[in-house]
Amino acid sequence: MNQELLSGGSGSRAAQQQQQQQQRPPAQPEPHSHHVNLEGHQPREPRPRRRRERGGGEEEQEEEDEEEEEREHPLEGEEGEEEGEEAEEPWPSRRNQSPGENEGAEEGRRRREEMNGEEKGAQWMWEQEQRQRRNRRRRNDEEEEEEEEENNNSGGEGHVGVPHLRTEEESGRPEEEEDGEREVEEEMDQESDEFEQSEDSGKEDEEEEEDEEGAGDGLHSPSLRTNVLDPNDNTDHPSGRQNQSSSSSHPTHLQMKRKLDHGPEVRPFPSGKKPCPSPTGLVPYPSTPTTFGDLRAANGQGQQRRRITSIQPPTGLQEWLRTFQSWSGPEKLLALDELIDSCEPTQVKHMMQVIEPQFQRDFISLLPKELALYVLSFLEPKDLLQAAQTCRYWRILAEDNLLWREKCREEGIDEPLHGKRRKVVKPGFSHSPWKSAYIRQHRIDTNWRRGDLKSPKVLKGHDDHVITCLQFCGNRIVSGSDDNTLKVWSAVTGKCLRTLVGHTGGVWSSQMRDNIIISGSTDRTLKVWNAETGDCIHTLYGHTSTVRCMHLHEKRVVSGSRDATLRVWDIETGQCLHVLMGHVAAVRCVQYDGRRVVSGAYDFMVKVWDPETETCLHTLQGHTNRVYSLQFDGIHVVSGSLDTSIRVWDVETGNCIHTLTGHQSLTSGMELKDNILVSGNADSTVKIWDIKTGQCLQTLQGPHKHQSAVTCLQFNKNFVITSSDDGTVKLWDLRTGEFIRNLVTLESGGSGGVVWRIRASNTKLVCAVGSRNGTEETKLLVLDFDVDMK
């Protein structure tokens, strides 16, 4: 126990206290009361002071003498100070007493020396209350306006590091509101925990152990998991105290108020407002030297750390502390260095838990809301979720809808998640739909990576024929086959909704948008279907050979045929708008963005067309074999050929920007998004390229690579999904190129089982599988990775 905290202070304080006591009405004393009552004790009539008034110089000299006496006799100094307010002192004084009273005082002194930690804490709390009362009276005239504002805006948020304690008023809240608040807290814990699943488990255990120890001490570790004051708490304000109406039979309630004290110059602030620091800062520094305990008391944290009450104070503790206080500043530092060196790590950790909170500042709550949100915008989403658990005000900031909208846009999430209406826990607090969308997407990504692979839905159809084309949009799947039909399936139930019959040859190409399906066949026609009814709306005649490829954009579709021509059709009227002629071999692939048409053919050429004028703007020459695949983003044309190379072209100038080499065979499939190109090759490898620089970023290979030709691929911002003739569908990490896991593995893989086509949405994967030798039945497999956001 710090003896300076037990000392009574200077003579000037005693003089001020006597003047203040003379203004108070006398009350009946409460003799022989050894019960520690911090609010319910009755003041006694003040006794005359021992010294008489002197001149200014003599009084200053007397103050210096008394201060010197206090340093030599700290306990006597304490009693001398309290003479001015003897009526409110719950411990008997030693001065101006009769011999019988001196014997009782001596016995009381021995009792105080033998007090346990809890009794010392009560005496310390009483002395702290006296100091705070004196400070409040001194500032009363200067803070009248602030007192009015405080009365109008009572309640509010507290600072980080002040534990949340329930008051009597709060305990009377409806159970439904309390249950809702607990539900939100549990939900935020769950959200934060989900973002920590991929971190090292050992690190998590260590952090949890630190949090538990910090909670046991009533202190806060560097973790963000802290609480704040409830807005309805009735705490002491710097310019006006709470009405002290509670009786002496409620010491627990009194202790709550002491713990929730913000300090002399820091007041609580209402929800959405920030505390107004004093001109000298958050922590007031009195003109006289203070101890660390005084500074903690000024911050309202004097009673927050755990007092060790399980053992009696060691013999000689008070003498040891007095000896330490008698040393000079450098001697104290030297002694502390030696003391720390002789401590065990657990003891040093205890010191850190006591000291560190005094140097922590909640700068976020001190900033205007706009600046605070700007600072939080630099945090990663998982850090935002942890910050939301710091305190109630941080939770409100971290739930900002615009903040989470930007986080969602960074992740490519375009729509907020409007779930069922939730119960309002606190006025002014609302759940962010954008945050809910982000949480949902994170859970979906986690399911793709390591969620349990449930048994897929099996959609059997097309008998033993080959599925040549596959479309997937919303909850509708369309498969085309060389059995001359297309089938429409429900991705939810797995049922075949209808079979589109009308072609007289195998279906080799298809496109779908909303309720419209377009198919191309070896019967040299295109058909436009209504997906809802299964009716054929139009049959488009014009090509003289198989319609091998097509691309739909809004109301127009461009088809490429083995007759070496391309045709532009209006799907609403069924009319052929334009015919593009120029290739001298079968057109194998086509792309259309509404402005330009790009086609690749077996004549080794890539052509850029203006469909409105039916003119060829550029013929892109460079490949030395058939062109099998194309990608076009409006600026760049990327072509893949049987000559093993991939070429990147400028669509405006027709110049070849890059030639991407590295594959060993036919590039059968490609996909381009935001200058990132993923190519699949018959050499069983998949490569990731940056078309701006022409560099190969990753090659998806290694011990888990495909064992046969890659048949199809698709990628998003996180994953690459690939299928192969080896009967597997694999998931890869786009950024690192690492293999994650197999999503599909056919039992007949390697002996004839093939995955021909794949199509994936955000939550589902559709695979068209079969075989050429009858070892695998033709069917569709639907895997679901969605989550249930309750």
Explained architecture:
The protein has 790 residues and is an alpha+beta fold. It has a domain at 346-413 and 433-452: Monooxygenase (Up-down Bundle). The chain contains 21 helices and 32 strands. The strands form eight sheets. Strands 1-32-31-30 form a four-stranded antiparallel beta sheet, with no helix packed on it. It has a four-stranded antiparallel beta sheet with strand order 2-3-4-5, with no helix packed on it. A four-stranded antiparallel beta sheet has the order 6-7-8-9, with no helix packed on it. The longest helix is centred in the N-terminal third of the chain and has 23 residues, at 117-139. The two termini are 53 Å apart. The model is unreliable at 1-16, 23-59, 72-102, 114-119, 152-174 and 199-289 (pLDDT under 50). Residues 31-46, 106-121, 165-174 have a biased composition (Basic and acidic residues). GO terms for molecular function: ubiquitin binding. It is found in: Nucleus. WD repeats lie at residues 474-499, 500-539, 540-579, 580-619, 620-659, 660-699, 703-742.
Write a concise keyword list for the protein shown above.
790 residues; alpha+beta; Monooxygenase; four-stranded antiparallel β-sheet; 21 helices; 32 strands; disordered N terminus
Any chance you could write out the topology, listing elements then pairs?
Blueprint: H1 3-6, H2 11-22, H3 56-72, H4 74-81, H5 99-113, H6 117-139, H7 144-152, H8 168-171, H9 175-195, H10 201-216, H11 251-259, H12 292-298, H13 317-326, H14 329-341, H15 345-355, H16 363-366, H17 369-376, H18 381-387, H19 392-398, H20 401-410, H21 433-450, E1 457-460, E2 467-473, E3 476-481, E4 485-490, E5 496-501, E6 507-513, E7 516-521, E8 526-530, E9 536-540, E10 547-553, E11 556-561, E12 565-570, E13 576-581, E14 587-592, E15 597-601, E16 606-610, E17 615-620, E18 627-632, E19 636-641, E20 646-650, E21 656-660, E22 667-673, E23 676-681, E24 686-690, E25 695-700, E26 710-715, E27 719-724, E28 728-733, E29 739-745, E30 753-760, E31 764-771, E32 779-784
Antiparallel strand pairs: 1-32, 2-3, 3-4, 4-5, 6-7, 7-8, 8-9, 10-11, 11-12, 12-13, 14-15, 15-16, 16-17, 18-19, 19-20, 20-21, 22-23, 23-24, 24-25, 26-27, 27-28, 28-29, 30-31, 31-32
Helix pairs in contact: 3-4, 9-18, 20-21
